[in-house]
Amino acid sequence: MSDAGHVPGTVRPGGRTARIRTAVLRAAEDALIECGFAGVDLAEIARRAEVGKTTVYRRWGTPQGLVADLLADMADQSVRRTETGALADDLRANARLVLRTLTDPRQGVLFKAVISAAAGDARTAEALHRFYAARIAEWSPCVEQAIVRGEAPDGTDAAEVVRAVSAPLYYRFLVSGDPLDETVADQSAHAAACAAGAGAYVR
């Protein structure tokens, strides 16, 4: 995106505008959870948020623009990485954070709705990709520090290691329906840490 403009809903001023944004994004969350992407009707969102329709249409423009801003807000609010000084423990913390998100009664349903919406809409998909890129960038320093400590070889792709932790959890969440619990999360983290240490993710 050039400096000449911005995607509707991505400006973050304070005061009344910030309160309106918060109310509208929470209303969008509720609609996604209850009805999926089909439920993100701007007029209905305005009603739920007790905000004027004109404000919502002017600021977000489309349901896709609103969901994109919701994802940007979710990225901003996401939990920071854990740094324990050991790669296996850092990755375990990451896996358990992903587990808590996916198994949360509200957040899990919200992520399924957003992922489903992204499958059929390019703009929503782009916003979802930005969200996950931000989360991978947040946790990649744990792997980079592990390389410095000698826990993984030089040239290890830190982002791939982080992806390897959550990929099995998302597979269970979205595809297989197999149980998701701390044992599964810890196994995923352990496997990624062992593979990283063995050089499996060297570029």
TrEMBL record:
<keyword id="KW-0805">Transcription regulation</keyword>
<dbReference type="Pfam" id="PF16859">
    <property type="entry name" value="TetR_C_11"/>
</dbReference>
<feature type="DNA-binding region" description="H-T-H motif">
    <location>
        <begin position="41"/>
        <end position="60"/>
    </location>
</feature>
<keyword id="KW-0238">DNA-binding</keyword>
<dbReference type="InterPro" id="IPR011075">
    <property type="entry name" value="TetR_C"/>
</dbReference>
<dbReference type="InterPro" id="IPR009057">
    <property type="entry name" value="Homeodomain-like_sf"/>
</dbReference>
<keyword id="KW-0804">Transcription</keyword>
<dbReference type="InterPro" id="IPR050109">
    <property type="entry name" value="HTH-type_TetR-like_transc_reg"/>
</dbReference>
<dbReference type="Pfam" id="PF00440">
    <property type="entry name" value="TetR_N"/>
</dbReference>
<protein>
    <submittedName>
        <fullName>AcrR family transcriptional regulator</fullName>
    </submittedName>
</protein>
<dbReference type="InterPro" id="IPR036271">
    <property type="entry name" value="Tet_transcr_reg_TetR-rel_C_sf"/>
</dbReference>
<dbReference type="InterPro" id="IPR001647">
    <property type="entry name" value="HTH_TetR"/>
</dbReference>
<feature type="domain" description="HTH tetR-type">
    <location>
        <begin position="18"/>
        <end position="78"/>
    </location>
</feature>
